[in-house]
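Entry 14. Structure prediction run on the chain below.
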Amino acid sequence: MSPEAGPAPHVAQRRGPGIGLALGGGFARGFAHLGVLQVLEQNHIPISCIAGTSVGSILGAAYASGAPLAKILAVCRNLRFRDIARWRVSRLGLASNYRLADLIEQVFESCDFERMKIPLAVVATDLSTGDPVVFTHGNLVDAIRASCAYPGLFEPVEIGTRCLVDGGLVAQVPTQAARELGAKRVVAVSLGVQDRYRKPPTNVFQVVARAVSAAQKNQSESWERHADLVLRPSMATMAWDEFERAGEAIEAGIAAATRALSRIQRLLASEAATTRVPVEQATQTQLAEALR
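Output returned:
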């Protein structure tokens, strides 16, 4: 990965079994992540760490900061593209995502990696080297803005000497970053690629978006090998900018996580066994259900 990565200060503090979450990108389809989190929370599945790319970095960081899930859901159900972007055509992009800072300030409980309730990694792409840059410390705002800077649409974000864009170019689902945070069992949430359009593209953004989607279709092997389980919420007909369909995406995430719940519980039980955690540190309900 990148020299930005480094042992997160929280990792050594993890006391019991838990799953690592790797949340992928997908713009408005990312609301499905909230449905997955809702199912995990309702079933008392502990989360040991979260790694996020693009929209997965926003929602994963909000939850990791300690913000109540109900609050995140309420904000996202009313979120629109204009709330995170401002059109300002430049040589480097069609819009700026500075408004993400206001959203983070509104929702997050903290804006620093070191103060996250759950260890967090945010993945961006270095335009100069083509390598992933994994942030695990410092201020969250610019790291998230960089992770969400979809090329051609948003201007790149400069951090230090680096010019950074969307992490989905190199880590569509950041499973390796979750492993490097210390996760023993990784559940990945893949929002897929949008391929419902069969007609020729009509503008430069569609050209870029389809080129990225084509590249991502051939990346799955690289990130899936770091996952113990992959959830794929069904949203094939949802476009990247259909923020008004947040409710549908959330329901798709709930359905995917509910279908996989018994497998998630087995992963949790297997981690408890391999790490020799005393039974009382994992709820008896989780272990009983997992071993059925």
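The two ends are 38 Å apart (CA to CA).
Filed with the rest of this week's runs.
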